[in-house]
Every structure is written in structure tokens, then in C-alpha cells.
Design brief:
With 495 residues, the chain is of the alpha+beta class. Helix content is 43%, strand content 19%. The strands form 5 sheets. The protein has a 5-stranded antiparallel beta sheet. It has a 4-stranded antiparallel beta sheet with strand order 4-3-6-7. α7 packs antiparallel against α8 and α9 packs antiparallel against α13. The longest helix has 40 residues. The radius of gyration is 57 Å and the shape is elongated. The termini are far apart. About 20% of the residues have low confidence.
Length: 495
């Protein structure tokens, strides 16, 4: 009965001590928590003496049994933190971890094996022993232990908070560091034929504000894939500053478009917001100023050296000059051709159609001019005759009037000739005894092409537009319409 009363008192004291520890934990110092084991042992002995005196005879067998249990526990190592630890140097000499090896004197060496049975293991107290120890523990010691546990829990919580706070600070530091880290970004560029490994890079004008609030205005260079820009995070406006120069001397038209971009991370692809297309103009239209500007950007950062920039500039100049010379040559030839195509009589002048040039020849007699198939004077395409106003005109037998041009000086020029889109299919379809000798197929096809401007094939003329039954009016209209477009407008009165 006395034991139960003491257990209840101990429990009440434990609860009261826990409450006091929680209310005034900040007043407990580490010195109070870290109590001395020796002092506790003294208190335990005093407490045990008090309990012995107060115990009645009925409890004597229990105490004797408890003492017997304690004496048995003393024969085994205790697991409590205050129990003595067995040191390795206290082991017998034969159980030492070092031994003398033959021929090496007394030098220590690690034994090859260590028997687990040679090292005493701590024993685990039984439930009875734990109960007896708890009963013997003074209230003050229990209170201090509870306070220690609470303190450790709070210290652990404080350590967790410190770790989380440190993590937050590291994250903030990482964000701050990234705001001051140069970011590589990619834009979209299209420049046909440009290879920046042999030509110059594309200059990009960058302006805006970085994450520090500093204004930015500089020229950076990208390759044909749009890579090469490095900037701090921020908001920028991008545009093409000038033309690169390809290895063959190609100069590009500089686009005027601008793009607003926000740089936030390294490796960011901005091609969806910033894409620039550099077109290739006609080489003969490139100016010296364009070439000089491109060479300047190449020297400032588009290539590795000024010498390379100079070589590219020379290539651009040579390409432009060659194009200009080619255009000049074509123009000169066109002028010669135009002169060759230009024909004149005493009353009028005209130009042989470009489509006919090189395939026809002419003869003239006074104000009459005949255009015939080259190499065959017996196959005229058109015969031009000037007729005074008020006089009538009658074409040769088998020919038709194909057009007329009023000169405005009292004369009218009439164009007449065979209606080849009608005549040729009729001949090929058996209207003559020997159609092949009359119009060989190659000649027939060429005549149809010349008089219709290749608007219809021979088969279409033969099978659709005319047919073997003959539709002269449709064929005549077809030829007249074409001559009205390519020949009649060029007939003018002689100066």
C-alpha cells in the first residue's frame, strides 16, 4: 500500500515538474540540465536509506529481493549513460589487439581477427530492474530529465528552423546571383547562303535595361543559327544593325523590324519572339556604302581579324562589279538586238517581235517589207504594204488581211499573209497530194508557234481550234489577235 502511495506521489511530482519546466524553460541553464552522476548516486543512496527506514516488515522481503536483483545487475555491464565503459586497455594481455610479429621486433600490428566474445556487450535491464530504478530515482532528477528532453526537443526545433532559414537564404542568394549572371540566348535568323565559319557574323543591335536597372546599348554578333548573344536578365529591344558578308561576297538587305524580348534564363530560345529575315538583293544594285558598312561590322566583331574582314570586303566588291558588268553586257547585247530588229522604209518603221527575232529574216522594196521564215523566202509570215488614204488594198491570192496601222501622215500600213493556224492543219490532214513536202512537220509546228505566240500547241490547233473540217474565221482571229499584240503597235511613221 505504501508503494502505491509513493508511486502516485511520484507521478504527481513528475507532472508538476513537467509543467514548471515548460513554463520556465528559459530559466534553465545547461549547468542545471547537465547534472553530475556522482551527486545523483549520493542522492540515490540517501533516498534508499530513507526508504529502508520507513519500510515496514511486510516490505522487507521485497527490498531483499530488490537488493539481490541489484547485486545481480552489478555483475553485468549497465546500459545507462552513467555506467562505466570497459576500455580496451583493461583487457588481459592475451586479448590485446596488437601482437608482436616475427622478425619485426615489438612493432604493433593489427590482429587478423577479433573474437566478438572477448568484448563485453552492454546488457539491457529487465522490466523489473527498470521499474526499481525508476522508483529509486529522486523527483528532482526526474524533473531535470524531463526538462532536458523538452530542451532537446526545442533545440532540435530551433535547429530545424535555422536549417530552413538557411535554405531560404541560399535560394535568395541563388536568385540574386542569377540576376548578375550572363545568359546565353538564341534568336531566329534567315540568311540564304550564309555560313559564318567562312563569312562574317550578323551584327545585332541590343538596347534596353538589365535587372540592375542599368541601360544597355551595344552590338552583339550571332551566327547563321542565331546563337551568340549573352546578356544579363532584363528587357531588351533587338534589331539587325547591318549586313554580314558571305564567303562569296554576298551582301544582304538589312531588315527594319525590331523585337521586344525578356531574358529570364540561360539557354532561352527567343526565336518565336525575335526572327529576322535577311534577303539577297540583286548584286548589281549593291552600293559601295553598303559594302563598307558590312565590312566595318565584320572588322568590329563579325570575324576574327581585320585581315579577314578586308578579304570579305574585296569579295563583295568583286561580286558587285561582276554583276554590274554582266548587266551592262546584257544591255549592250539587247541594244544590238534591238537595232537588228529595227526595220525602216521610206514611209514607216517597226521592230521585229522579240519572239520572232533570230527565227525570221526580211526583205524590202520601197515601202513594202516582207518578214519570212529564216532560210525560206517562199514561206512569208507577214507582208507589210503602205497604201495612201482613199486607195483600196487587196492581199495576194491565198492570203488574208491580218491587221492595219494608220501612220497619221496620209498612209495606212496593211499586214497580210497566210493564216497558218488554219492552212497548216488542213494541209497535214490531206487537202494536198503530198502534205509532207508542202509543210514538213517541223516547219508546220514552227509556223503555228510563230503566228500564235506558243499560246497553243499544234495538236490543239489541229484537233480543237480548227479541226479538219476547217474553221477559217476562228483561225484567222487567232492569228490576228496575236499580231495585234506583238507587231502592229510597233509600226510608226518615219521621222
Amino acid at each position: 500500500m505504501k508503494d502505491e502511495t509513493m508511486g502516485q506521489e511520484d507521478a504527481a511530482q513528475d507532472a508538476e515538474a513537467c509543467a514548471e519546466a515548460l513554463e520556465s524553460l528559459d530559466q534553465i541553464t545547461l549547468a542545471e540540465i547537465a547534472f553530475d552522476d556522482s551527486s545523483v548516486d549520493v542522492q540515490d543512496e540517501a533516498h534508499e536509506g530513507t526508504e529502508d527506514e520507513d519500510s515496514d516488515a511486510k516490505d522487507a522481503p521485497d527490498e531483499a529481493e530488490a537488493e539481490e536483483d541489484e547485486s545481480e545487475a552489478d555483475d553485468q555491464p549497465e546500459s545507462d549513460t552513467s555506467e562505466e565503459t570497459i576500455l580496451l586497455d583493461s583487457l588481459p594481455a592475451e586479448d590485446s589487439l596488437t601482437r608482436e610479429l616475427p622478425g619485426l621486433g615489438s612493432a604493433p600490428a593489427v590482429d587478423e581477427t577479433i573474437a566478438m566474445g572477448d568484448i563485453p556487450l552492454p546488457s539491457v535491464p529487465s522490466a523489473r530492474e527498470a521499474e526499481v530504478r525508476h522508483r529509486k530515482m529522486p523527483p528532482k532528477r526526474r524533473n531535470l530529465m524531463v526538462a532536458g528532453v523538452v530542451a532537446v526537443a526545442l533545440v532540435a526545433g530551433g535547429a530545424g528552423y535555422a536549417a530552413w532559414n538557411g535554405y531560404q537564404q541560399e535560394q535568395a542568394a541563388a536568385v540574386a546571383a542569377s540576376a548578375h549572371t550572363m545568359m546565353s540566348v538564341q534568336i531566329g535568323v534567315h540568311a540564304a547562303g550564309l555560313d559564318c565559319s567562312t563569312g562574317s557574323k550578323i551584327p545585332v543591335q541590343v538596347s534596353g535595361q538589365d535587372s540592375d536597372g542599368s541601360s544597355v546599348s551595344e552590338t552583339l554578333y550571332v551566327d547563321e543559327h542565331g546563337r551568340g548573344i549573352k546578356l544579363l536578365p532584363g528587357d531588351y529591344t533587338l534589331s539587325i544593325a547591318g549586313s554580314p558578308i558571305a564567303a562569296d561576297g554576298t551582301i544582304y538587305t538589312v531588315p527594319t523590324t525590331k523585337a521586344q524580348v525578356a531574358i529570364k534564363s540561360d539557354g532561352q530560345d527567343l526565336s518565336a519572339q525575335a526572327t529576322f529575315k535577311l534577303k539577297v538583293p540583286s548584286a548589281d544594285t549593291v552600293t559601295d556604302d553598303q559594302i563598307d558598312a558590312a565590312a566595318k561590322y565584320a572588322e568590329e566583331g563579325g570575324v576574327n581579324s581585320a585581315a579577314v574582314a578586308k578579304v570579305l570586303q574585296q569579295a563583295a566588291t568583286a561580286r558587285r562589279d561582276a554583276a554590274v558588268n554582266a548587266v551592262s553586257s546584257r544591255e549592250a547585247q539587247a541594244a544590238r538586238d534591238a537595232d537588228a530588229r529595227h526595220k525602216a522604209t521610206d514611209l514607216y518603221q517597226l521592230d521585229i517581235p522579240v519572239e520572232w527575232y533570230g527565227k525570221v529574216a526580211t526583205w524590202q522594196n520601197g515601202s513594202t517589207l516582207c518578214i519570212y521564215l529564216d532560210g525560206d523566202t517562199n514561206t512569208p509570215l507577214v507582208t507589210l504594204v503602205a497604201v495612201r488614204e482613199g486607195e483600196s488594198f487587196t492581199p495576194d491570192e491565198g492570203d488574208a488581211v491580218l491587221g492595219a496601222a494608220n501612220l497619221g501622215n496620209g498612209y495606212t500600213v496593211y499586214a497580210s499573209g497566210p493564216v497558218y493556224p488554219y492552212v497548216v492543219p488542213q494541209t497535214i490532214n490531206g487537202r494536198t497530194q503530198d502534205p509532207v513536202s508542202t509543210y514538213p512537220m517541223d516547219t508546220a509546228i514552227e509556223l503555228v508557234e510563230l503566228t500564235t505566240g506558243n499560246r497553243y500547241t499544234y495538236s490543239q490547233i489541229k484537233n480543237v481550234l480548227v479541226g479538219k473540217d476547217g474553221k477559217a474565221d476562228a483561225a484567222t482571229k487567232l492569228e490576228c489577235d496575236y499580231l495585234a499584240q506583238i507587231l502592229m503597235p510597233s509600226i510608226k511613221a518615219q521621222d
